[in-house]
Every structure is written in structure tokens, then in C-alpha cells.
């Protein structure tokens, strides 16, 4: 089975007309490619609950706040189509940048509140780019369900906020983070790490899980975060952009009686890694 690649919106719409006429439930998995098992878990979830599954592959220039990061982002379309083949998706939508953003394109979607701290503070404009492209992809694919990974926890909340606020007729399905056996969350960017750096990178999830466990057992948040920071630094990370406990749903200050999330972004050998874990309420 080869993966049908569609590049033009008109062609996608022609398929969609037929699928919608049949009453098929359409699922979309938005990605930027360089597919790994994390993406494939989203595709499997989509296949399990939808009649038609569209995977989108678009390295969205508008969500990159650093031109260097955009230039270095892995682009592996042929391998991506191959890795998807056994999953038998209905379309791999790979639009050209001009299909997404014709010259006259002048609309940006900006979400306040949940998009402002953490990634929003460290990557100015990032979530405007994400929200704009995700809204476009929802409209282009006319998806009934969309699948997003919890690895990008803040992105998930931003997209959920947008869907609620704009009354978009799409159900967001969160999917758990897929990790290597040693605990590292799979990510397209971390494919750039050397084997040696990848081994050191495991300190990130280890520190997160240990801190989450310690907080749940009553250790103060400040002490738990200080220990986690020390562990990550000792492993050789160059910079910790943030490591914070936040309310799981709002990303406001964490409260003891509500689910919280410990979220981190840190640099190792020129690669920026993010991760997050749940911290259950203490009462
Ligand atoms: N390890 C993972 N487990 C579950 N979902 C994941 C994982 N990694 C990425 N995803 C999800 O896949 C979708 C597409 O993500 P994307 O293409 O940006 O890949 P990525 O691995 O997150 O890349 P990077 O973080 O390096 O940009 C997003 O919904 C993202 O949350
Ligand atoms: C959702 C997304 C595909 C939008 O470009 C991207 O932010 C990603 O891959 O997580
Ligand atoms: N996975 C989130 C997309 C980004 O880092 O731009």
C-alpha cells in the first residue's frame, strides 16, 4: 500500500466531497513531518475512531520564531510517506507554502491567556503561527476529529481554547506522550542529537518524573524544582528556559487541590527539548 500524497486543496476537496457524501467521519493528524512513533500513535488513534484519516505535513514558517530553527527543521517527505504506508491513511496532505499562505493572506489568529506563558514567552509569535495554521488545516480538511500529542501540552490547550472560542465543529482528541524505553519523549528535533547526547537527554524526563513524584508526596515545589534543575544541569544541558509547575488546564499558578503539570524546555547540544508530566492534586 502506498500513501496517497495530495498537494492541492482542490484535490483534497474533491476527495472530501465524496467522503462527506458517504457520511464518513473524517480525522486529521496535523504534523510537520519527520515522522516517528509519537506521530504514528496519533495516526493509529485516528484510524481507530474515524472512517477517513488525513495526515498533514507542513513545516509552517509562521510558527518558527528563529530562521535557523526553520532552516534546520528535518524534512523527510519520502521517508514519511513510507513510514505511513502500513497504516493505510486516506491522504497525506503536503501543501506548498503558497497553498497555505497566498500573497494576499492577511489573517492571523491570536489567542490570549493560555498561549502567553512558557512557550509563548520564549517563542514570541509561535502560537499565533500555530493557531493560524491549525485553523486553516481544520477548514481545509473539514475534519470532525483532530489528534494532538500531550508532549506539546500548551499547544493542546491553545488549540482547545481556539476551538471553543470560535465554535469550530471539530473534536480535539489528546493523545499520551510516546517515550523511548529510557523515558525520552520522541520528537522530530531530538533526531538531531548524537547517541551520546541522547543518552544524557534522559535526565530531562527522569528529573521531571522524580520532581512530580516528590511534590505529590509533599516535598515543597521550590525544593523539588531546585533538585530537578540541578539534575538537568549536571547531565550537561546548556540552558533551562523554564521548569515550572502550572495549573494543568489554564497554565496559571498551580493550586494544591487541582491537577497540575510540570513543564520544561531546555537546550542540549544546540537542540531544544520540551517535555511535561502530570502532578495529581495533593488532597
Ligand atoms: N512523543 C510524542 N508522543 C505523542 N505525540 C507526539 C510526540 N511527539 C510529537 N507528537 C505530536 O505530533 C504532532 C505533530 O508534532 P510535530 O510534527 O511538531 O513533531 P514533534 O516531534 O513534536 O517535533 P518537534 O517537537 O521537534 O517540533 C503534535 O500533535 C505533537 O504533539
Ligand atoms: C500542530 C502543528 C502541526 C501546526 O503546525 C505543529 O505545531 C506540530 O507539529 O505540533
Ligand atoms: N511540536 C511543536 C511544533 C514546534 O515546535 O514548532
UniProtKB/TrEMBL annotation:
Compartment list: Cytoplasm
CDD domains per record: PanC (cd00560)
Keyword ATP-binding among UniProt keywords: yes
Residues given in the record as beta-alanine binding sites: 63
Positions that bind (R)-pantoate: 63, 155
Signal peptide (residue range): none
Keyword annotations: ATP-binding, Cytoplasm, Ligase, Nucleotide-binding, Pantothenate biosynthesis
Annotated catalysed reactions: (R)-pantoate + beta-alanine + ATP = (R)-pantothenate + AMP + diphosphate + H(+)
One record GO biological process: pantothenate biosynthetic process
Note: The reaction proceeds by a bi uni uni bi ping pong mechanism.
Task performed by this protein: Catalyzes the condensation of pantoate with beta-alanine in an ATP-dependent reaction via a pantoyl-adenylate intermediate.
Name listed for the protein in its UniProt record: Pantothenate synthetase
Organism: Paracoccus aestuariivivens
Amino acid at each position: 500500500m502506498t500513501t496517497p500524497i495530495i498537494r492541492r486543496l482542490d484535490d483534497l476537496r474533491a476527495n472530501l466531497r465524496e467522503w462527506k457524501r458517504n457520511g464518513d467521519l473524517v480525522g486529521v493528524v496535523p504534523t510537520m513531518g519527520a515522522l516517528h512513533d509519537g506521530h504514528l500513535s496519533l495516526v493509529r488513534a485516528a484510524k481507530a475512531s474515524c472512517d477517513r484519516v488525513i495526515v498533514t505535513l507542513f513545516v509552517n514558517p509562521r510558527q518558527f520564531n528563529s530562521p535557523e530553527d526553520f532552516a534546520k527543521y528535518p524534512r523527510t517527505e519520502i521517508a514519511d510517506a513510507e513510514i505511513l504506508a502500513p497504516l493505510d491513511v486516506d491522504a497525506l496532505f503536503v501543501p506548498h507554502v503558497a497553498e497555505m499562505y497566498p500573497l494576499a493572506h492577511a489573517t492571523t489568529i491570536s489567542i490570549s491567556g493560555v498561549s502567553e506563558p512558557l512557550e509563548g514567552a520564549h517563542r514570541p509569535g509561535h502560537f499565533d503561527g500555530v493557531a493560524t495554521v491549525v485553523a486553516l488545516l481544520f477548514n481545509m480538511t473539514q475534519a470532525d476529529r483532530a489528534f494532538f500529542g500531550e508532549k506539546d501540552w500548551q499547544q493542546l490547550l491553545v488549540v482547545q481554547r481556539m476551538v471553543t472560542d470560535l465554535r469550530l465543529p471539530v473534536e480535539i482528541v489528546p493523545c499520551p506522550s510516546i517515550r523511548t524505553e529510557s523515558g525520552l519523549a520522541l520528537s522530530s528535533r531530538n533526531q538531531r542529537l548524537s547517541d551520546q547526547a541522547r543518552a544524557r537527554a534522559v535526565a530531562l524526563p527522569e528529573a521531571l518524573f522524580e520532581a512530580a513524584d516528590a511534590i505529590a508526596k509533599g516535598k515543597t515545589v521550590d525544593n523539588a524544582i531546585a533538585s530537578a534543575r540541578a539534575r538537568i544541569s549536571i547531565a550537561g544541558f546548556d540552558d533551562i528556559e523554564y521548569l515550572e509547575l502550572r495549573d494543568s488546564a489554564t497554565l496559571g499558578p498551580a493550586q494544591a487541590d487541582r491537577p497540575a503539570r510540570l513543564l520544561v524546555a531546555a537546550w542540549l547540544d544546540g537542540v531544544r527539548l520540551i517535555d511535561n508530566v502530570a502532578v495529581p492534586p495533593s488532597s
